[in-house]
Design goal:
The chain is α/β, with parallel strands linked by helices. It has one domain (about 1-215): Spore Coat Polysaccharide Biosynthesis Protein SpsA, Chain A, CATH 3.90.550. Helices cover about 25% and strands about 20% of the residues. The chain has six helices and ten strands.
């Protein structure tokens, strides 16, 4: 069994459509996920997706720290960003084993675009952050880092290093599973990852077509 987990926070471009398309893509290309969960502070209905309320009013990407709350899953769990596009057979993502995406710009550092763990194995990330969120949301709280933007992945990277919990990187475990959006591309690997301002709704070519094709069936 495996759970795909995503987070929808109010105030941005994302809404229930993004949840539905991510879920439809997972069901189409990664059927090994027998459970899909969305943590959100919005009143949404998405067939086939368990809607679980966020407990805290942490802004923006900081709400992703709730994905590590204890009690959300009892099996292999994968945190997946809403702007991911499933484009091909991606069941390898649901395989067991602690792993994250390696940061696109900073080798050796983690990205929370994808995080895979088992049950409550990363609950300490949530608990440490929740004990003093204002401290950890403050730029510089993690000391000198190469990241230009202070966000959740900087804090998760710091907490994992402190705990001496080094993840495997998905790019090394599953070569070719992750691909990155690039407008000139005409073909993509199983999971299209968007970096920076690029998003599926404004993408061009096959990446946008795949996102649209992952609309749920009526």
């Amino acid at each position: 069994m495996a759970t795909l987990l995503t987070v929808l926070k109010h105030g941005g471009r994302y809404d229930a459509v993004w949840v539905a398309r991510l879920a439809a893509g997972a069901r189409r290309f990664a059927p090994a996920f027998d459970r899909i969960v969305c943590l959100t502070d919005r009143a949404i209905v998405c067939p086939g997706v368990e809607i679980v309320p966020l407990r805290h009013d942490w802004p923006g990407w900081w709400s992703k720290m709730e994905a590590f709350r204890p009690g959300l899953a009892t099996d292999t769990t994968v945190l997946c960003d809403l702007d991911t596009v499933f484009a091909g057979e991606a069941s390898a993502l649901a395989e067991p084993g602690f792993a994250t995406m390696e940061d696109y710009f900073h080798k050796g550092r983690i990205s929370t675009a994808f995080v895979r763990w088992h049950a409550d194995g990363l609950a300490f990330l949530y608990e440490r952050f929740a004990a003093d969120p204002e401290r950890w949301m403050a730029p510089g709280s993690c000391g000198p880092v190469p990241n230009a933007v202070h966000g959740d992945q900087v804090v998760v990277d710091r907490f994992l290093r402190d705990a001496e919990r080094k993840p495997h990187f998905l790019q090394a475990l599953h070569p070719g599973l992750l691909d990155f959006y690039d407008p000139p591309k005409t073909t993509y690997g199983p999971l299209i990852v968007f970096i920076g301002a690029a998003k599926p709704d404004t993408a061009t070519g096959p990446a946008h077509a795949l996102w649209v094709s992952n609309a749920p069936e009526d």
